[in-house]
Amino acid sequence: MKIKQIIPILGIIIAIAVLAIPFSIAYADDEVPGIGDETCLSCHDFPGMRTTLASGEVLFTAIDSVTHVTSVHGRSGIACVQCHTDIDGYPHREIPAATVREYTLAMYGLCERCHASNYEASLDSTHQRALADGHLEAAVCTDCHGTHNIQEPETPRSNKPKMCERCHSTIFTAYQNSVHGADLIGEGNPDVPTCTDCHGVHNVQGPSTAETFHLFSPQICADCHDDKILMDRYDVSTDVFDSYVADFHGTTVVLFEKIAPDQETNKPVCIDCHGVHDMRKVDDPESYVIKKNLLDTCQKCHPSASVNFPTSWLSHYKPSPEEHPLVYFVDLFYRIIIPVTLGGMSVFIGADIFGKISKKRGGEQ
Predict the structure, then answer these.
(1) Which end of the chain is more exposed for a tag (fewer CB within 10 A), N or C?
(2) Which residue range forms the structural domain that includes residue 343?
(3) Rounded to the nearest 5 degrees, what angle is found at the Cα of 345, between the Cα atoms of 343 and 351?
(4) For each of the chain's 365 residues, which pLDDT tens digit applies?
(5) What's the pTM?
(6) Quick one: residue 58, left, alpha or beta (phi over 0 = left, psi -120 to 50 = alpha)?
(7) What is the maximal distance between C-alpha atoms in the chain?
(8) Which of 124, 151, 178 represents a domain boundary (last residue)?
(9) What SS3 state is found at 60?
(10) In sequence order, which residues have a C-beta less than 8 Å from that of residue 335 and are 6 or more positions away?
(11) 8 Å CB contact between 273 and 297
(12) CB-neighbour burial class of residue 171 (10 A; exposed 0-12, middle 13-18, buried 19+)
């Protein structure tokens, strides 16, 4: 074949290759649609962009390009149309939602495509149960994580309670002033528990979703207060938890857990004495368990309790010669006298049986 004949053929091949480049890039991955983010942001990266829904509510559609690019999705290369799957050109299809909330509830289910396990866990949460009961304001994925500005949940960790604050502002205020919240929000201490450590992350639970949440709540406290390595950092003894389990209240609660896990107990657990979200340091004047406030705390369950009633509580101390010496020595006395008594009785009974057997054998001879 002559060169003059080859040149036109090569030209056609090159032209086809050039035209195919955009399509090969757009459809190199079946999950990546052909409309790039730059196309979307050429319109939506415009402050104040909005649309009016059927209800008259305004839905803001402006997306800051820097916010999107620096988000988790932006850094991962997730394209706009991978979430907005109904976008296939311009003008866009009419939004079927009548209200902003209706639009949010219609969109958040898209998270399941990439986050199936977390999405499924959320279906058993207090939020989803509230939503099923008709409380449309109950939190869904985007209410907690955001939409176009999603960041890692631990950046920083103090963002977690602030996220919950959007719906639970009163509880947040109590937590913020508590021994846990003050350390996390005020000092950035990563060791103290935040909302999700007690209530769960996606499968959020609480008294409204589990009748026995109260019964099993000491186990939540034990996750930290029974951890010797963690408690040693703050000079807090794990005896706090052990002594609770050993006393009348704790022993009864443990029995309920094992014998009747589906029933509630009327015995106090940690949060009944120390508070739920507003736990304070033991030397805080507002603490429920300091001496001047302790009677009021006890009277919540024991309304006829007298002034001396709280003195029967050992304050989570294990009895020792320094702390509650009378209890310590009484306990020591019984630890000695009971084994000695039982041991002596066993020796006496054994000797008596042996003597009778020997006497019987001697008579037979």
Answers:
(1) C
(2) 326-354
(3) 105
(4) 555 555 555 444 444 443 343 433 333 344 444 688 999 999 999 998 999 999 999 999 999 999 999 999 999 999 999 999 888 888 888 898 999 999 999 999 999 999 999 999 999 999 999 999 999 999 999 999 999 999 887 778 888 999 999 999 999 999 999 999 999 998 889 899 999 999 999 999 988 777 778 888 999 999 999 999 999 998 888 888 888 888 888 888 888 888 888 888 888 999 999 999 999 988 899 999 988 899 999 999 999 999 889 887 777 877 888 877 888 888 889 999 999 999 999 999 999 898 888 877 776 65
(5) 0.73
(6) beta
(7) 136
(8) 151
(9) strand
(10) none
(11) yes
(12) middle
> Would you say residue 170 lies in a domain?
no
3-state secondary structure of 364: helix
Q: What is the tally of structural domains in the chain?
A: 2
Q: Which amino acid makes up residue 125?
A: S
- Which residues, listed in sequence order, are joined to residue 51 by a DSSP beta bridge? 59
Q: Which of 121, 136, 151 is the last residue of a domain?
A: 151
> In this structure, is the dihedral angle defined by the CA atoms of residues 146, 209, 277 and 189, taken in order, positive or negative?
negative
Phi and psi angles of residue 51, each rounded to the nearest 5 degrees, phi first: -140, 150
The residue assigned the tokens 């035209």 is 19
Residue 253 lies in a domain: no
Contact 105, 136 (CB under 8 A): yes
69: tokens are 């690019």
| Residue 133 within any structural domain of the chain | yes
271 to 66, 143, 198: CA distances (angstroms): 44, 28, 12
Residue 64 lies in a domain: yes
**DSSP 8-state symbol, 102:** H
